[in-house]
Amino acid sequence: MNGALPVHGQIWVAHGSAPKGVVLMPPQSYGGDSLESLIFPMLRCGINVIRFIPVGFWDRTQPGYTTYSAVDDLHALIAWTRSVDYDRQSQLGK
For the chain, is the Cβ count within 10 Å smaller at the N or the C terminus? Predict the structure, then answer.
């Protein structure tokens, strides 16, 4: 959540129960490779990956997308991965 608005995305979880790092992957603006080809190599290295869609990026019914709002979403995701709601040792985040 970024304030009262949800930040949508996908989580890829690396195998194993050991603590894992996480990479937050924003979408690529204006087309082109969004570096999704790096997801599976990172998983094989034991790194979780979260790909997210900033609030308002695709859905114009929500507040308008700006670069600053995307940075706010990124900060909300960083706070979530540092919180107790994100369990690095689990196969799935809570």
Answer: C
